Every structure is written in C-alpha cells, then in structure tokens.
Amino acid sequence: MKRKHFALLLLAGCVFIVPKLEAQIRHVEMRVEGMT
Amino acid sequence: MKQHLQRQSGVANVDVSLIDGKVEVTPKEDGQIEPAQLLKATYDSGVSVAELDMTATGKIMKDTSGNLSLQVKPNQSFIITANELSKGLEPLVDSGTVVTVRGQLYKKPAGKQRKAAASAPLKLLILEVKKE
User: Fold this and answer.
1) More reliable by pLDDT, A5 or A32
2) pLDDT tens digit sequence for B51-79
3) What is the dihedral of CA B79, B56, B96, B31, to 10 degrees?
4) What is the CATH number of the domain that holds B68?
5) Domains of chain A, residue spans
C-alpha cells in the first residue's frame, strides 16, 4: 500500500511540475527578395 | 535556400512562403541558432534578405558602455537598440528575470549605407515585450 502511495505521489509530482521559461531564441522570421 | 538553412546548426524546421517572400525558421528545443549565420546562408543561396525578426527569451544585461543587451545563452547576447520599449526593460537589468521579446535584428539599409551596415554587428530593435 505504501509503495502504491509513493508511486502516485511521484507521478503527481511529475505531472504538476511548472514549466520553466528557458532563455533561447524561439522563432526567426525573414522577409526575403529575389526568391523564385 | 531551404536546404542551406536547414543545414545550419540549431535549426529544426524551415518554412518558405514564395507568395509573400517569408521564411520562418524554428530552432531546435535545446539547440543554439545563430541569426548572423542564417543571414549568411540565405545570401549564399542567392537570395537577398530585406528584414530579419526574431522572438527570443533571455535576461536583460547592461555592458560597461551602458548598452542594454538580451542574453539568450551564456555565450550569446544581442545589444538592444534604445527605443521606448527598451526603456521599460531597464528595471530588469541584472535582476535575473527572464523576458520574452520580439524584435528586429536586421533591416536592409537603403542606398550607400549598404556596405557599412553589412559588416556591423546585429542589434536588436525591440518591437514587442511579451507578457508571460
């Protein structure tokens, strides 16, 4: 029983981890000329 | 051009729209993309870039000359061109707060300025500070 509770607690912890905003370039957009 | 760009490190996907002349580059989740390399790769493929915008998340820093910069990686940062929106970022300097901004990194200069501007480092003109 204890093992089951521990597994559930672990699962809940994984699900509810708040995603951290990571520093990175997310998107790049270019306007180009002369493309065929 | 699409193949040229997809070969660049850190690039996950490239979408090209022939109709409106737009190229969208999606970086890899954990990769490091280098906008200057994207510009070069595009030019090398025989296409001229009129404008390059990017959306990035990073920390606001200030260098010894008093310039604000957006640090996206410990070894990658962009000097911010001063405007009304950049003034609003001043309180975040060295606070460690992570902010997401959309900005213009390159715009094709007109006429004679073209050569001088081509070799200049890319500066970030903030167009939007995103609320997250």
Assistant:
1) A32
2) 999 999 999 999 888 899 999 999 999 99
3) -100
4) 2.40.50.200
5) 1-27
> Is there a single domain that holds both residue B54 and residue B93?
yes
Q: Return the exposure string of B47-60: e unless at least 16 CB atoms fall within 10 Å of the residue's CB, then b.
A: bebebbbbbbbbbb
Whether residues B81 and B127 share a domain: the answer is yes
Q: How far is residue B54's CA from residue B72's CA, in Å, rounded to a whole number?
A: 12
Same domain, B13 and B58: no
Query: Which chain A residues contact residue B56 at CB under 8 A?
Result: 23-26
Q: What was the pLDDT predicted at A17?
A: 59
Domain enclosing residue B119, as ranges: 50-132
CB–CB of A28 and B54 under 8 A? yes
Distance CA A5, CA A7 (A): 5
Which residues of chain A from 1 to 36 reach within 8 Å of chain B, CB to CB?
21-36
| Alpha-carbon gap: B127 to the closest alpha carbon of chain A (Å) | 13
Structurally, how many domains does chain B consist of?
2
Q: Is B51 in contact with A28 (Cβ distance < 8 A)? A: no
| Residue numbers in A near B58 (CB within 8 A) | 23-24
